[in-house]
Amino acid sequence: MTMIKVASYNIRKAIGTDRRRSPERIIDVLNELDADIVALQEADRRFGPRHAVLPDWLLQLHSDYRAVDLPTRTESMGWHGNALLVRRDQAEAAGDVMHLPCLEPRGAVTASVDLKGSRLRVVGMHLDLSGLWRRRQAAAVLHQVDHLHAQDPAGATILMGDTNEWTGRRGCLQDFARHYDFAPCGRSFHARRQVAQLDRIMWRGGLTLIDSGVHATALARRASDHLPVWAQFEPNA
Q1: Within a 10 A sphere around the Cβ of 35, how many other Cβ atoms?
Q2: Mean pLDDT, the chain, as a whole number?
Q3: Are the C-beta atoms of 202 and 211 separated by less than 8 Å?
Q4: What pLDDT does residue 154 have?
Q5: Does residue 71 contact residue 39 with C-beta atoms inside 8 Å?
Q6: pLDDT at position 74, please?
Q7: Does domain 4-235 have CATH number 3.60.10.10?
Q8: Distance between CA atoms of residues 101 and 140, nearest Å
Q9: Which of 104-118, 135-149, 204-218 has the lowest mean pLDDT?
Q10: What whole-number distance in Å separates Cα of residue 103 and Cα of residue 164?
Q11: 32-74, pLDDT tens digit by residue?
């Protein structure tokens, strides 16, 4: 049986709940997760040239992951802090960026990924703190994904990221739910006291959800203020 595991992780620029910045610790959590595709949020420094928190050499030295190439500045690994990771030798991926309406800089990243005989379209995102802007951003993501699907209708679509939505299935989650199913991952924020489901995984087409959850190991509780969420799928025949 072929399984595909995906995950989403707000790494908070590698600053842990102990206030220490440790990219190596984030990579250790990624290795614990053992997902095929990972959407990262807050993966670049916020100011200046926005250097990558997890530089390529560090990923190559301590993990099997690589960042999907994006048409952005070479110092960054993502777009407004969003990045996608795939295993170096197990996936072919072509990445691009999504421009989102915003008050503060926001964006999303997307990739077409060929993995284990399946074609996937994956989107990683980090939505606004404002409910009004979250809904505008959700509408923009849905519109742009539909445009990509019209150009290339093959395969399933997975949306992942920090939605910043505290209100269950209301707000932007209600908008996404019209088109996508939600993996019931659970509460991922705060890492020390799990009170909210801010981080979400959604999908449509071509996949059957097998399992999902929050990665709540002792290491993950120290590495960031968010815990990673994950979902495991079986491709439909």
Answers
A1: 23
A2: 93
A3: no
A4: 73
A5: no
A6: 66
A7: yes
A8: 8
A9: 104-118
A10: 15
A11: 999 999 999 999 976 555 688 999 999 999 999 999 999 876 6
DSSP-derived pairing of the beta strands 118-126 and 91-99: unpaired
Report field, pTM of the whole predicted structure over 0.70: yes
- Which among 162, 157, 81, 87 is positioned nearest to 121, based on CA atoms? 157
Q: Where are the domains of the chain?
A: 4-235
Q: Which tokens in the block code for residue 84?
A: 């996608």
Q: Which amino acid is at 214?
A: V
Which DSSP letter does residue 219 get?
Answer: H
Torsion angle of the four alpha carbons 133, 77, 97, 37, in this order, in degrees rounded to the nearest 10: -90
Q: Calculate what percentage of the chain has a pLDDT beyond 90.
A: 80
The answer to whether the CB of 12 falls within 8 A of the CB of 227 is: no
Name the DSSP letter for residue 213: E
Average pLDDT of 178-205?
97
CA 64 vs CA 77, 89, 222: distances in Å: 16, 8, 22
